[in-house]
Amino acid sequence: MELRFEPNGRTTKLLCRPDGERNWSSSKLGAALLEDRSSEIRAELEELSNYVRDSDDMSEELDPGWQDYLTHLARIRQCGDALHAAMFDEADQRGAEMIARIERLPMGSELIVHCSEEDGTLPLGFTFSQQQPVGFIRPSISDFAGFWLTRFRITMLVDGGGCDRKDLTVPRDQFSELYALHREDTDGTLIPGMEQQIRRVCYTWADARSAYAEMAAYGSVVFILAHSNGDWLELSKSERMESVRFKRMLHSRSFPTPPVLVILNCCRSVAGPEQRSLLSCVARRGFCGLVGTEAGILNRNALRCGLRLIEGLEGGHSLGQAFDNMQYAPDLFPLNLLYTCYADREFRLDALAPQLTAA
Predict the structure, then answer these.
(1) What 3-state class would DSSP assign to 83?
(2) pTM here?
Protein backbone atom coordinates (compact mmCIF):
# COMPACT_ATOMS: atom_id res chain seq x y z
CA MET A 1 0.00 0.00 0.00
CA GLU A 2 1.25 3.50 -0.84
CA LEU A 3 0.23 6.77 0.80
CA ARG A 4 1.21 10.23 -0.39
CA PHE A 5 0.90 13.50 1.52
CA GLU A 6 0.81 16.63 -0.65
CA PRO A 7 0.63 19.85 1.41
CA ASN A 8 -1.01 22.86 -0.23
CA GLY A 9 -1.40 25.83 2.06
CA ARG A 10 -4.05 25.19 4.70
CA THR A 11 -4.92 21.76 3.35
CA THR A 12 -3.02 18.53 2.80
CA LYS A 13 -4.11 16.06 0.16
CA LEU A 14 -3.84 12.43 1.23
CA LEU A 15 -3.64 9.95 -1.63
CA CYS A 16 -3.87 6.18 -1.30
CA ARG A 17 -3.02 3.44 -3.79
CA PRO A 18 -3.06 -0.30 -3.06
CA ASP A 19 -0.34 -2.47 -4.59
CA GLY A 20 -0.96 -3.27 -8.23
CA GLU A 21 -3.37 -0.40 -8.85
CA ARG A 22 -2.65 2.59 -11.08
CA ASN A 23 -5.18 5.09 -9.76
CA TRP A 24 -4.97 6.98 -6.49
CA SER A 25 -7.95 7.71 -4.25
CA SER A 26 -7.69 11.01 -2.39
CA SER A 27 -9.13 13.14 0.39
CA LYS A 28 -8.38 16.61 1.77
CA LEU A 29 -7.16 17.13 5.34
CA GLY A 30 -6.59 20.16 7.54
CA ALA A 31 -2.86 20.88 7.59
CA ALA A 32 -2.93 22.70 10.94
CA LEU A 33 -4.88 19.87 12.57
CA LEU A 34 -2.35 17.29 11.35
CA GLU A 35 0.50 19.40 12.71
CA ASP A 36 -1.21 19.78 16.08
CA ARG A 37 -1.94 16.05 16.37
CA SER A 38 1.66 15.21 15.45
CA SER A 39 3.01 17.63 18.05
CA GLU A 40 0.76 16.10 20.71
CA ILE A 41 2.05 12.59 19.99
CA ARG A 42 5.67 13.73 20.11
CA ALA A 43 5.06 15.54 23.40
CA GLU A 44 3.73 12.31 24.91
CA LEU A 45 6.72 10.39 23.52
CA GLU A 46 8.97 12.93 25.27
CA GLU A 47 7.13 12.15 28.51
CA LEU A 48 7.70 8.42 27.96
CA SER A 49 11.41 9.09 27.40
CA ASN A 50 11.54 11.10 30.62
CA TYR A 51 9.77 8.27 32.44
CA VAL A 52 12.42 5.78 31.28
CA ARG A 53 15.14 8.17 32.46
CA ASP A 54 13.60 8.62 35.90
CA SER A 55 12.42 5.07 36.55
CA ASP A 56 15.80 3.31 36.16
CA ASP A 57 14.94 0.93 33.31
CA MET A 58 11.25 0.94 34.28
CA SER A 59 11.77 -0.83 37.57
CA GLU A 60 8.47 -1.83 39.19
CA GLU A 61 9.90 -0.87 42.57
CA LEU A 62 9.96 2.75 41.39
CA ASP A 63 6.54 2.53 39.73
CA PRO A 64 4.35 -0.01 41.59
CA GLY A 65 2.17 -1.88 39.13
CA TRP A 66 3.66 0.30 36.39
CA GLN A 67 0.75 2.70 36.89
CA ASP A 68 2.69 5.72 35.63
CA TYR A 69 3.82 3.74 32.57
CA LEU A 70 0.23 2.69 31.85
CA THR A 71 -0.88 6.33 32.10
CA HIS A 72 1.73 7.35 29.53
CA LEU A 73 0.66 4.46 27.30
CA ALA A 74 -3.02 5.46 27.51
CA ARG A 75 -2.20 9.05 26.58
CA ILE A 76 -0.11 7.96 23.58
CA ARG A 77 -3.04 5.79 22.44
CA GLN A 78 -5.43 8.71 22.79
CA CYS A 79 -3.16 11.00 20.76
CA GLY A 80 -2.60 8.26 18.17
CA ASP A 81 -6.35 7.80 17.82
CA ALA A 82 -6.73 11.57 17.38
CA LEU A 83 -4.17 11.52 14.55
CA HIS A 84 -6.11 8.65 12.95
CA ALA A 85 -9.33 10.69 13.16
CA ALA A 86 -7.57 13.69 11.59
CA MET A 87 -6.43 11.59 8.62
CA PHE A 88 -9.55 9.51 7.99
CA ASP A 89 -13.13 10.73 8.23
CA GLU A 90 -15.34 7.65 8.52
CA ALA A 91 -18.38 9.82 7.72
CA ASP A 92 -16.87 10.71 4.34
CA GLN A 93 -17.23 8.00 1.70
CA ARG A 94 -13.72 8.42 0.30
CA GLY A 95 -12.19 8.51 3.77
CA ALA A 96 -14.16 5.44 4.85
CA GLU A 97 -13.09 3.50 1.76
CA MET A 98 -9.48 4.50 2.27
CA ILE A 99 -9.28 3.40 5.89
CA ALA A 100 -11.18 0.20 5.11
CA ARG A 101 -8.51 -0.74 2.56
CA ILE A 102 -5.74 -0.07 5.04
CA GLU A 103 -7.43 -1.99 7.85
CA ARG A 104 -7.79 -5.03 5.59
CA LEU A 105 -4.04 -5.24 5.04
CA PRO A 106 -2.48 -8.35 6.61
CA MET A 107 -0.24 -7.94 9.63
CA GLY A 108 3.30 -7.08 8.52
CA SER A 109 2.27 -5.50 5.20
CA GLU A 110 4.55 -2.84 3.77
CA LEU A 111 3.21 0.70 3.95
CA ILE A 112 5.17 3.10 1.74
CA VAL A 113 4.59 6.76 2.55
CA HIS A 114 5.76 9.62 0.30
CA CYS A 115 6.27 12.90 2.12
CA SER A 116 7.88 16.32 1.71
CA GLU A 117 10.64 17.51 4.04
CA GLU A 118 9.48 21.11 3.56
CA ASP A 119 6.24 20.82 5.50
CA GLY A 120 7.14 18.73 8.52
CA THR A 121 6.41 15.06 9.07
CA LEU A 122 3.83 12.86 10.73
CA PRO A 123 4.71 10.22 13.36
CA LEU A 124 2.64 7.65 11.46
CA GLY A 125 3.98 4.70 13.44
CA PHE A 126 2.00 6.00 16.41
CA THR A 127 -1.29 6.17 14.53
CA PHE A 128 -3.64 4.09 16.68
CA SER A 129 -6.46 2.32 14.90
CA GLN A 130 -7.26 -1.00 16.55
CA GLN A 131 -7.61 -1.86 20.21
CA GLN A 132 -6.08 -5.30 20.67
CA PRO A 133 -7.19 -7.41 23.67
CA VAL A 134 -3.72 -8.11 25.06
CA GLY A 135 -3.40 -8.81 28.78
CA PHE A 136 -0.82 -6.64 30.56
CA ILE A 137 1.88 -8.39 32.58
CA ARG A 138 4.85 -6.04 32.37
CA PRO A 139 5.95 -3.38 29.84
CA SER A 140 6.60 -4.93 26.42
CA ILE A 141 6.09 -4.40 22.69
CA SER A 142 2.68 -6.10 22.98
CA ASP A 143 1.41 -2.95 24.71
CA PHE A 144 1.69 -1.21 21.35
CA ALA A 145 -0.56 -3.62 19.49
CA GLY A 146 -2.99 -1.54 17.46
CA PHE A 147 -0.38 1.09 16.60
CA TRP A 148 0.73 1.15 12.99
CA LEU A 149 4.37 0.58 13.96
CA THR A 150 3.54 -2.98 15.07
CA ARG A 151 0.98 -3.66 12.34
CA PHE A 152 2.90 -2.49 9.26
CA ARG A 153 6.44 -2.18 7.97
CA ILE A 154 6.41 1.57 7.41
CA THR A 155 8.85 3.20 5.02
CA MET A 156 8.80 6.99 4.70
CA LEU A 157 10.32 8.24 1.44
CA VAL A 158 11.38 11.89 1.19
CA ASP A 159 10.48 13.59 -2.10
CA GLY A 160 13.57 14.43 -4.12
CA GLY A 161 15.76 11.70 -2.62
CA GLY A 162 16.36 8.07 -3.33
CA CYS A 163 18.52 5.69 -5.36
CA ASP A 164 17.93 3.22 -8.13
CA ARG A 165 17.12 -0.19 -6.69
CA LYS A 166 20.02 -1.75 -8.63
CA ASP A 167 22.44 0.54 -6.76
CA LEU A 168 21.25 -0.28 -3.24
CA THR A 169 23.62 -3.21 -2.69
CA VAL A 170 27.05 -1.82 -1.78
CA PRO A 171 30.17 -3.98 -2.26
CA ARG A 172 31.99 -4.38 1.03
CA ASP A 173 35.27 -3.19 -0.46
CA GLN A 174 33.49 0.02 -1.53
CA PHE A 175 31.78 0.66 1.79
CA SER A 176 32.80 3.18 4.44
CA GLU A 177 31.40 4.44 7.74
CA LEU A 178 31.74 7.84 9.37
CA TYR A 179 30.87 8.36 13.04
CA ALA A 180 30.46 11.92 14.34
CA LEU A 181 29.96 11.51 18.08
CA HIS A 182 29.22 13.76 21.03
CA ARG A 183 32.42 13.49 23.07
CA GLU A 184 30.82 13.98 26.49
CA ASP A 185 28.15 11.37 25.82
CA THR A 186 30.66 8.74 24.76
CA ASP A 187 33.47 10.00 27.02
CA GLY A 188 35.89 9.00 24.28
CA THR A 189 34.74 5.40 24.45
CA LEU A 190 31.89 3.28 23.12
CA ILE A 191 29.90 0.32 24.29
CA PRO A 192 32.34 -2.47 25.29
CA GLY A 193 33.05 -4.69 22.33
CA MET A 194 32.10 -2.06 19.76
CA GLU A 195 35.48 -0.28 19.59
CA GLN A 196 36.68 -2.66 16.89
CA GLN A 197 33.73 -1.72 14.68
CA ILE A 198 34.30 2.03 14.56
CA ARG A 199 36.57 3.05 11.69
CA ARG A 200 36.28 6.82 11.40
CA VAL A 201 35.41 8.66 14.62
CA CYS A 202 35.11 12.45 14.65
CA TYR A 203 34.38 14.73 17.58
CA THR A 204 34.42 18.01 15.62
CA TRP A 205 32.48 19.10 12.55
CA ALA A 206 35.71 20.07 10.79
CA ASP A 207 37.01 16.51 11.15
CA ALA A 208 33.64 15.13 10.05
CA ARG A 209 33.63 17.34 6.95
CA SER A 210 37.16 16.23 6.04
CA ALA A 211 36.43 12.54 6.62
CA TYR A 212 33.24 12.75 4.58
CA ALA A 213 35.12 14.27 1.64
CA GLU A 214 37.52 11.31 1.69
CA MET A 215 34.56 8.93 1.36
CA ALA A 216 33.38 10.45 -1.92
CA ALA A 217 34.00 7.33 -3.98
CA TYR A 218 32.33 4.93 -1.56
CA GLY A 219 28.87 3.82 -0.56
CA SER A 220 28.64 4.92 3.04
CA VAL A 221 26.83 5.24 6.32
CA VAL A 222 27.03 8.59 8.10
CA PHE A 223 26.28 7.99 11.79
CA ILE A 224 25.63 11.06 13.97
CA LEU A 225 25.30 10.82 17.76
CA ALA A 226 24.61 14.40 18.82
CA HIS A 227 22.33 16.60 20.84
CA SER A 228 19.59 18.05 18.66
CA ASN A 229 16.40 20.08 18.74
CA GLY A 230 15.45 19.00 15.21
CA ASP A 231 17.35 21.95 13.72
CA TRP A 232 20.81 22.27 15.35
CA LEU A 233 23.27 19.39 15.87
CA GLU A 234 25.71 19.62 18.76
CA LEU A 235 28.84 17.49 19.26
CA SER A 236 29.91 19.58 22.25
CA LYS A 237 29.06 22.99 23.69
CA SER A 238 31.47 24.57 21.23
CA GLU A 239 30.76 22.23 18.28
CA ARG A 240 27.36 23.13 16.81
CA MET A 241 26.02 23.01 13.27
CA GLU A 242 22.56 23.98 12.04
CA SER A 243 20.53 21.99 9.56
CA VAL A 244 21.32 24.02 6.42
CA ARG A 245 25.10 23.73 6.91
CA PHE A 246 24.75 20.04 7.69
CA LYS A 247 22.79 19.51 4.49
CA ARG A 248 25.41 21.37 2.46
CA MET A 249 28.17 19.25 3.98
CA LEU A 250 26.42 16.07 2.89
CA HIS A 251 25.60 17.51 -0.53
CA SER A 252 29.22 18.47 -1.19
CA ARG A 253 29.84 15.10 -2.85
CA SER A 254 29.58 14.80 -6.60
CA PHE A 255 26.91 12.41 -7.84
CA PRO A 256 26.32 9.83 -9.11
CA THR A 257 28.14 7.88 -6.41
CA PRO A 258 27.24 4.78 -4.38
CA PRO A 259 24.29 5.44 -2.04
CA VAL A 260 24.54 7.24 1.28
CA LEU A 261 22.53 6.24 4.36
CA VAL A 262 22.33 8.81 7.17
CA ILE A 263 21.64 7.64 10.73
CA LEU A 264 20.76 10.76 12.70
CA ASN A 265 20.87 9.19 16.13
CA CYS A 266 19.78 12.22 18.12
CA CYS A 267 16.68 13.82 19.58
CA ARG A 268 13.87 14.89 17.23
CA SER A 269 15.93 14.26 14.10
CA VAL A 270 12.85 13.61 11.94
CA ALA A 271 10.63 16.15 13.69
CA GLY A 272 12.33 19.42 12.79
CA PRO A 273 10.60 22.70 11.91
CA GLU A 274 9.27 23.47 8.46
CA GLN A 275 11.71 24.59 5.75
CA ARG A 276 14.80 23.55 7.76
CA SER A 277 14.10 20.01 8.82
CA LEU A 278 17.09 17.70 9.07
CA LEU A 279 15.26 15.48 6.58
CA SER A 280 16.32 17.97 3.93
CA CYS A 281 19.79 16.40 3.94
CA VAL A 282 18.42 13.31 2.15
CA ALA A 283 16.05 15.14 -0.21
CA ARG A 284 18.46 14.63 -3.08
CA ARG A 285 19.23 11.83 -5.51
CA GLY A 286 21.99 9.54 -4.30
CA PHE A 287 20.79 9.41 -0.70
CA CYS A 288 19.16 6.12 0.20
CA GLY A 289 17.54 7.98 3.09
CA LEU A 290 17.69 8.59 6.81
CA VAL A 291 16.90 6.80 10.05
CA GLY A 292 15.97 9.16 12.86
CA THR A 293 13.89 9.71 15.98
CA GLU A 294 10.47 11.24 16.56
CA ALA A 295 11.23 12.67 20.01
CA GLY A 296 13.92 13.07 22.65
CA ILE A 297 15.89 9.95 23.51
CA LEU A 298 18.46 9.20 26.21
CA ASN A 299 22.06 9.19 25.01
CA ARG A 300 22.93 5.72 26.25
CA ASN A 301 19.78 4.26 24.71
CA ALA A 302 20.40 6.07 21.42
CA LEU A 303 23.92 4.66 21.17
CA ARG A 304 22.70 1.12 21.81
CA CYS A 305 19.88 1.40 19.27
CA GLY A 306 22.07 2.95 16.60
CA LEU A 307 24.87 0.45 16.94
CA ARG A 308 22.37 -2.42 16.92
CA LEU A 309 21.23 -1.14 13.54
CA ILE A 310 24.83 -1.05 12.28
CA GLU A 311 25.43 -4.56 13.61
CA GLY A 312 22.50 -5.81 11.55
CA LEU A 313 23.79 -4.20 8.37
CA GLU A 314 27.28 -5.56 8.86
CA GLY A 315 25.79 -8.96 9.65
CA GLY A 316 24.30 -9.18 6.15
CA HIS A 317 20.75 -7.95 6.77
CA SER A 318 19.00 -5.44 4.57
CA LEU A 319 18.29 -2.08 6.18
CA GLY A 320 14.65 -3.10 6.58
CA GLN A 321 15.54 -6.33 8.40
CA ALA A 322 18.12 -4.59 10.58
CA PHE A 323 15.65 -1.80 11.42
CA ASP A 324 12.84 -4.20 12.35
CA ASN A 325 15.18 -6.30 14.50
CA MET A 326 16.34 -3.18 16.33
CA GLN A 327 12.85 -1.76 16.78
CA TYR A 328 11.39 -5.01 18.15
CA ALA A 329 14.36 -5.97 20.37
CA PRO A 330 13.03 -6.49 23.95
CA ASP A 331 16.25 -5.26 25.57
CA LEU A 332 15.95 -1.89 23.80
CA PHE A 333 12.25 -1.34 24.62
CA PRO A 334 10.59 1.17 24.69
CA LEU A 335 12.82 3.92 23.28
CA ASN A 336 13.63 1.83 20.19
CA LEU A 337 10.03 2.54 19.14
CA LEU A 338 10.88 6.22 18.68
CA TYR A 339 12.83 5.49 15.48
CA THR A 340 11.38 5.89 11.98
CA CYS A 341 12.86 4.62 8.72
CA TYR A 342 12.96 7.37 6.07
CA ALA A 343 15.07 5.21 3.77
CA ASP A 344 14.77 2.44 1.20
CA ARG A 345 14.64 -0.81 3.13
CA GLU A 346 16.54 -2.65 0.38
CA PHE A 347 19.86 -0.93 1.18
CA ARG A 348 22.44 -3.56 2.16
CA LEU A 349 26.05 -4.65 2.00
CA ASP A 350 26.78 -7.50 -0.37
CA ALA A 351 27.13 -10.98 1.08
CA LEU A 352 30.35 -11.93 2.82
CA ALA A 353 32.79 -13.92 0.73
CA PRO A 354 32.72 -17.65 1.66
CA GLN A 355 36.25 -17.54 3.14
CA LEU A 356 35.32 -14.58 5.36
CA THR A 357 32.13 -16.31 6.50
CA ALA A 358 34.14 -19.38 7.47
CA ALA A 359 36.65 -17.24 9.35
Answers:
(1) helix
(2) 0.90
